[in-house]
Model the fold of this input.
Amino acid sequence: MSSKTTIPTLIKTIMVVSSPSLLVLSFFAIMGELNFSYFVYGYIGIMLVSTVFVMPFLSNISALTYYVNDLALDKRVRAPDLSFLSNVAELSGALGRLQRSWENKRQEMETVITEREILVDTLPDILIMTNDDKMIVRTNRAARNIFGQNLAHRHLQDVIPNEQLINAISAVIEDLHGQEIEFQLGEPYVKDFQAIIERFPIPSEGGISVVITLTDITQQKRIQRMRADFVANASHEIRTPLASIIGFIETLRGPAKDDPVARDEFLKVMADQAERMSKLVNDLLSLSKIEMNAHAAPIGKVDVLRIIRAEKQHFEWACKQKNVSLKVKLNDTLPPTKGDDEELAQVIRNLIGNAVKYTNPDTEVVLTAKLTSALPEDPVFRNLSRAICFSVQDHGEGISKEHIPRLTERFYRVDTARTRKVGGTGLGLAIVKHVLNRHHGVLTIESEIGQGSTFSVYLPVYDDISSGRPENKPETVA
Ligand code: ADP
Done:
């Protein structure tokens, strides 16, 4: 007997199968044609024979039942051998086909689920799904990369402790309308985020009720703040000389109307202020022009030595005023660099100009230009073995260390009063940095208090990059 066929089923089946024989035997026994002991032996014999015939059928039916049950439980099983149920065997074939079709459907579903998971994981935005209690149900890779690996089953408040976000989620849970907010996360993240909070559109078996998408807008916000600061600084820089000119005009029209000495003096100051404004406007225009071309790589062949020699001439008068001697130590020849002639001239002009401005009277400013293999630590030069190096060394008061990283920020000055006195706009080094970014060049600043400073510009050699540009310089806009 098959272990799958139960005894009660077997007895019931035999009773049913042998019931016609029992009726016939009973008829003969009632008619007196069969005595009782023959009736009993006969019936036992019939039951035994019925058992032998019924067993294979029962075992086939039982196997079929188990097979269907296994299919219902999504198990991968082989179709049973139903040789005793010849007509039912077709059913087994049909079930086999059904199983294969289920199998295909399941594989399709698994592929769709895997694709969706990959899609969600590769999204650059952070995706967090919570239930109505704000417990995290699912996250994508971007979320885990920022907030840690084990986020599931944690309360959102513990992962992103921001009241504004939590309140917005509560509002979405209550009134079912999506919300969009911006918020800032403090330590250890220090990031600005834009959050889109939506109600999950269908009832979810996994318990998802809210989907939160976070976009990192730190950079965007930084640029916005920088723009606002820039406009405020630029307006301030222009307003100061303008106010001074207006003041002098009023004085000249009023109290100093008939005072020729005062008039001469005031006109000189006004001319200085007007020149300062004009310099500022020129520098602002240069910056904006360089920024506009920031993503178009320059293509010209530039002879740095020629530019240095030409620019040096412009400072002879300023040097004479301070009794500063401008010394040059230039290599006889230098290979060309790839760039824009006028922009590189501006870099050299600004650096020589600063050195002459900030060096002490009766000292020397030394200009050096050479081909060097001692390259600064910078990704731009990772694949290069040499560069053109132009340095300007002055003997001024020097710059203390904390100021050096900020010197290329727009309008950053170490000593505002002193810089204004020497006619600085606070934009010269910002222009240098922007030009160098575009030229895949690097600026280094070394300074000793009381000794002076050396500003060096490194530029790649034309032939080293003409076949392909060096690694992109990261955008570090100040
Ligand atoms: P500015 O037009 O005011 O000189 P820059 O952007 O060229 O603006 O320089 C920014 C600040 O860096 C200056 O205000 C000055 O404080 C400092 N600085 C620049 N070059 C030198 C230098 N050679 N020696 C000392 N300080 C310098």
About this structure: The longest strand covers residues 191-199. The pocket of adenosine-5'-diphosphate is lined by residues 350, 354-355, 358, 394, 396, 399, 407, 412-415, 419, 424-430, 453 (CB under 6 Å).
